[in-house]
Write a structure and sequence with these properties.
The complex is a heterodimer of chains A (324) and B (291). Chain A contains 13 helices and 14 strands. Chain A has 324 residues and is an alpha/beta fold. The longest helix of chain A is centred in the middle third of the chain and has 17 residues. Chain B starts with 21 loop residues before the first helix and ends with a helix. Chain B is 71% helix and 1% strand. In chain B, helix 3 packs antiparallel against helix 7, helix 5 crosses helix 11 and helix 6 runs parallel beside helix 11. The chains are: A alpha/beta (324), B mainly alpha (291). The interface between A and B is large, with 47 and 43 residues.
Chain lengths: 324, 291
């Protein structure tokens, strides 16, 4: 069985800057594979290489069994793409956009007609097939792009930040549609995201930082690897609390997001000891199970939101606003 | 090859893409062309505004200058003289603005949708050029319908000949525009550049005045302007269907000369066609490189 995506020693340099520094991984057929990392980690470069838009400096990558450099056209026939920014024609209707895509990909005429309706139904846009895309909301456009990405029955669907710039409700509805399409379509999904809660939808997650793979496993296994619970306390004197934690319990704590944060094996049982033995007043305490955020933090040393330069988001929404 | 088949009860049928073929490339050309037409006819304002300027030139400038030009030599209406030039102007504007849609598409991301498709760059560029050519020719034809007002006879042969030449010119100019658009990232920069090209190209083409007895520097500039070789054959076609004396014809429609040698009309048209092919090739290379 061919892997949907197979990456071997992939390197991409821009001058002196190494965007991707030797990646190796495989994505199995039918998998939903999440690609996580802060901006500048090499996510977009990797996805662009896999989509044949960027030529790697060294190493190789196969998508649907075809080499992304030597068999570019074959790769393109086998992939669907949904980019961060919309690539729809606002002047055309939803259906015209889909038909344009079908013609460009050489989908047989009869098959196009047969496939249009179920795909539009799947993304909830059948009623709006004759409407111009300029009248669509951000979420509708994204759904239409997902339907378009699937129109030619690709083996791998690449979703580059599929929910960026959408409000939380729309984001979760997009995920509803993605999970729905997984039931209907025999397709591998390769996605990048910086929303940790979305990474939970994936079968496996790869975390990359500075162009290198730092972790690759199922969400459960990654969480288990971090192991301990996370305890956050609020005190009047954080510095004293950190010292006290180290002196009495041998725990290394740090201030994160304004609270003293540390990891222990079983948080609920630790809290009573904390109150009696710390010797400092504690204003509040919270215990949480490890989340993917903690996983990300433990592998990359920063929370994903700290790492995501907020400026890029700001720039993107600025660019969007300018276009309107 | 793949594992999990679609869930039972699924009504979405998977498609299998046929192998790449010439037919597929032609379908791509056709759909890119079609999109240009859909977009053009949705934008009625653009149809009107791009006709406004040529009409102004023809009727306002043509009528206003007629007394100064003194009714021409041999009683030829100045507007009749101006007509082929104004036709080329209509085509020039529309063709260049059609090419601007590439910059537009790049800004709005749609170009990416086309460039990641499993289809040759040639098909996309050719579709664009044919689309721009069709749209520009259509504008030219609207203007051509006004021939009678400018004193140009509605001779079927003349109309067909002019329509054919408009198509050739439209295609060439769109290809020029596509080459310019291939490298330009913003629509403002493209508009700036085309303003820089448009007026000099129009003024130096012989659209507004005959190309004989010009000072040396103007001789050179008009001869290196490709539009010159499109305006002259159209004017000759018009004059062929007018009842004018030799003296008037020599004054108003002297043709293009190279160091005293009269450039024949078939050669002029060939030059325009060669330019189209050359620009098309440059555009394809640029889009291949841009990948």
């Amino acid at each position: 069985m061919t892997a949907a995506v197979s990456v071997d020693g992939l390197v991409k340099r821009y001058g002196d800057i190494e965007a991707v520094g030797g990646l190796d991984f495989e994505v199995g057929p039918g998998e939903t594979f999440g690609f996580l990392g802060p901006n500048g980690a090499g996510k977009s470069t990797t996805i662009n290489i896999l989509c044949t838009l960027v030529v790697p400096t060294a190493g190789s990558a196969l998508v649907a069994g075809h080499d992304v450099v030597a068999e570019r056209a074959e790769v393109r026939r086998n992939i669907g793409l949904v980019f961060q920014d919309t690539t729809l024609d606002d002047y055309l209707t939803a259906e015209q956009n889909l038909r344009f895509h079908a013609e460009l990909y050489g989908v047989p005429k009869a098959a196009t007609t047969e496939r249009l309706r179920p795909l539009l139904e799947m993304v909830g846009l059948e009623q709006r097939r004759g409407s111009r895309v300029s009248t669509f909301s951000g979420g509708m456009k994204r759904r239409l792009e997902i339907a378009r990405g699937l129109l030619h029955s690709p083996r791998v669907l690449f979703l580059d930040e599929p929910t960026v710039g959408l409000d939380p409700q729309t984001r979760s509805s997009i995920w509803g549609y993605i999970n729905e399409l997984k039931r209907h379509e025999d397709v591998t999904i390769f996605l990048t995201t910086h929303y940790m809660e979305e990474a939970e939808h994936c079968d496996r997650i790869a975390i990359i930082d500075s162009g290198r793979l730092v972790a690759l496993d199922t969400p459960e296994a990654l969480k288990a690897s971090v192991g301990s619970d996370r305890v956050q306390i609020r005190t009047a004197d954080d510095g004293a609390a950190i010292t006290a934690l180290y002196d009495r319990f041998g725990i290394a704590a740090a201030v994160r997001e304004g609270e003293v944060t540390f990891a222990v094996e079983s948080g609920e049982q630790f809290v009573p000891r904390l109150f009696t033995e710390l010797g400092l007043p504690i204003d509040s305490v919270s215990v949480s199970r490890p989340s993917l955020d903690d996983v990300f933090m433990s592998y990359t040393g920063s929370t994903i939101r700290d790492a995501e330069a907020s400026s890029s988001d700001a720039m993107r929404s600025f660019a969007r606003a300018m276009r309107r | 090859m793949t594992t999990t088949p679609a869930v039972a009860g699924s009504d979405v049928v998977a498609v299998r893409l046929p192998p790449r073929s010439l037919g597929h490339e032609l379908r791509a050309v056709k759909i890119v062309w079609q999109r240009e037409l859909i977009r053009f006819f949705r934008d009625r304002l653009r149809i009107v505004t791009s006709l406004l300027q040529p009409v102004l030139f023809l009727f306002v400038l043509g009528t206003g200058l007629a007394p100064v030009v003194g009714g021409g030599v041999g009683g030829i209406d100045f507007r009749t003289f101006l007509f082929p030039g104004v036709l080329s102007m209509a085509v020039l504007f529309t063709a260049l603005f059609s090419a601007a849609s590439i910059v537009w598409d790049r800004e709005f991301g749609f170009l990416r949708e086309m460039l990641v498709a499993p289809v040759g760059r040639g098909a996309i560029v050719l579709g664009k050029c044919l689309g721009g050519a069709t749209v520009a020719t259509f504008q030219g034809l609207i203007l051509l319908a006004l021939a009678g007002v400018a004193g140009v006879p509605y001779d079927p042969g003349l109309m067909l000949s002019l329509a054919g030449q408009l198509l050739l010119l439209s295609f060439t100019l769109t290809a020029v525009g596509v080459v310019a658009a291939a490298r330009i990232r913003t629509i403002q920069a493209f508009m700036g550049l085309s303003q820089l090209i448009l007026m000099p190209m129009f003024f130096l083409s012989g659209a507004l005045f005959p190309l004989s007895n010009l000072p040396g520097w103007l001789q050179v500039l008009t001869r290196i302007n490709p539009l010159t070789y499109a305006v002259d054959p159209m004017r000759s076609a018009v004059f062929d269907h007018l009842d004018v004396g030799t003296a008037a014809r020599e004054a108003m429609n002297p043709g293009v000369t190279w160091w005293g040698w009269q450039v024949p009309i078939p050669l002029e048209l060939t030059l325009v066609a060669l330019m189209a092919v050359g620009m098309l090739a440059v555009a394809v290379v640029q889009f291949r490189r841009a990948e």
